[in-house]
């Protein structure tokens, strides 16, 4: 599971150390050497779990799909990013000001304290 690209569809085999990584940043974190460049890349589809090779010199639009299951693996990468929210603007964040009808409201039931004088005959 790649922590750099959230929607990674394939794993890539690094030509320098022959190990599988989800992205080049995962390779940089795990290894001390730089990622070697190559024109023939090996992939493993994360949907069907089958390996395949692609020649990057003759890469076409139809090569964006897994040859085994037609999974579209060339997608715009979704990377995680920090979100700063202002507390109090969104009711989902701070719901202290909202009245919840499911909670029974405390009523002051006394004959000595009268807030509503509309029911007194007079």
From TrEMBL:
InterPro entries: Mito_Tim_assembly_helper, Znf_CHY, Znf_CHY_sf. GO terms for biological process: protein import into mitochondrial intermembrane space. Keywords: Metal-binding, Zinc, Zinc-finger. Residues 1-71 form the CHY-type domain. GO terms for cellular component: mitochondrial intermembrane space. It comes from the Eukaryota. GO terms for molecular function: zinc ion binding. This is CHY-type domain-containing protein. The lineage of its organism: Eukaryota, Fungi, Dikarya, Basidiomycota, Agaricomycotina.
